[in-house]
Amino acid sequence: MNKTDYALMVLGCDKNAELIPMFLRNLKKYWPQYQKEVYINTESVRTNSDDFKLVYPTHVSDINTPWAKRLYDFLREYPYDYVVFLLDDFILSDFVDDDELNRVHSIMKQHPEIACFNFMETYKDAEDSVRKAYERYYLKDRKAEFRMNLQAAIWRKDYLMKFIRKHENPWQFETWGSIRSRRYKDEIYHIKKGANRVFDYPEGGVLADNRWRGDAVVEFMKREGFNIDFSKRGIYYEGENRKTEIKHRSFVQKVWEVTRSLI
User: Fold this and answer.
1) Whole-angstrom Cα distance, residue 200 to residue 198?
2) What is the C-alpha to C-alpha distance for residues 64 and 49, in angstroms, rounded to an integer?
3) Alpha helix stretches (DSSP H) within 78-227
4) How many CB atoms lie within 10 A of CB 226?
5) pLDDT digits over 80-138, tens only?
6) CA–CA gap between residue 18 and residue 204 (Å, rounded)
7) Rounded Cα distance, 155 and 78, in Å
8) Helix, strand or coil for residue 168?
9) Which of 71, 150, 158, 239 has the most beta carbons within 10 angstroms of its beta carbon?
């Protein structure tokens, strides 16, 4: 094992356990070059695979374990210096640009100040945030929205370990984490709008609010040959209200969580 290598970590949860076999099937289909382990970060549900060596956290968690604590603990066990993140509902829809991923990985090894190459466009960027680019990418402004996000990316593990706040959920990681990241000098690069992507999957993933994300995702999953009863989860349509944990907490709880996130 080369410690400076990377492997794929799938960020999931038990309530989405049904997605893991689908994810792995399309991983094999659209990333045939990938021959390493697949690290799957869920609470307790374990899945077998004939195609990949699956690695799960040593310690089983329950549903009350904060998402960020699970991630932090699993990164402590993870053996490589770099990690590629995909969420469990990022079901691949086209071939991975393996050459480009290996190119930016080499750049990161040569430039330890780089914390991340993010492979999905974020749409609230001002043109003047582009200060320095590695071909398809630009340096994300330290005050930009969604500088930290959970779209497909390759990360330097030690940056994540110092960055993570163990009480956070994914929404807090992206929202408050983007503000928190302003204090760090590490460079975060995002792919330019319109550039060829390294990973292709339905925008935002196949789920929204624990439902299937609209008719386009339903059609995509059918085209890919997945036999799914879509009525069990139901279908989310753009513009509908979505639940976020923080909305259902008291004012004091919200203030305390934000304070902990920004420390």
Assistant:
1) 7
2) 27
3) 98-110, 157-163, 170-180, 214-223
4) 16
5) 999 999 999 999 999 999 999 999 999 999 999 999 999 988 766 545 455 667 889 98
6) 18
7) 13
8) coil
9) 71
Determine the pLDDT at residue 147.
87
Write the CA distances from 237 to 122, 217, 227, 246, integer angstroms.
Answer: 21, 11, 21, 22
Angle subtended at Cα 150 by Cα 226 and Cα 7, rounded to the nearest 5 degrees? 75
Q: How far is CA 207 from CA 87, 201, 221, in A?
A: 10, 12, 11
Query: For the chain, give me the number of helices (H) and strands (E)?
Result: 7, 11
Distance CA 199, CA 201 (A): 7
Q: What is the pLDDT of residue 245?
A: 46
Report residue 71 as tokens. 């991630």
- DSSP states of 34-78 as a string? --S-EEEE-SS-----SSS-EE--SS---TTS-HHHHHHHHHHH-
Per-residue model confidence (pLDDT) at position 146:
81
pTM, full prediction: 0.90
Q: Tokens 């760090």 belong to which residue?
A: 184
Q: Which residue is associated with the tokens 């944990």?
A: 245
Q: Are the C-beta atoms of 183 and 147 separated by less than 8 Å?
A: no
| Gap between the Cα atoms of 88 and 9, Å rounded | 9
Q: Which of 15, 4, 17 is nearest to 81 (CA)?
A: 4
| Closest by Cα among 54, 81, 112, 98 to 200 | 98
Report residues of the chain scoring pLDDT below 70: 123-132, 243-263
pLDDT (0 to 100) of residue 249: 52
Q: What pairing do the DSSP bridges indicate for beta strands 114-118 and 54-55?
A: unpaired
The structure tokens 């094999």 sit at 28
Q: Are 197 and 156 in contact (CB under 8 A)?
A: no
H helix or E strand, kind and range, residue 260 = helix 251-262
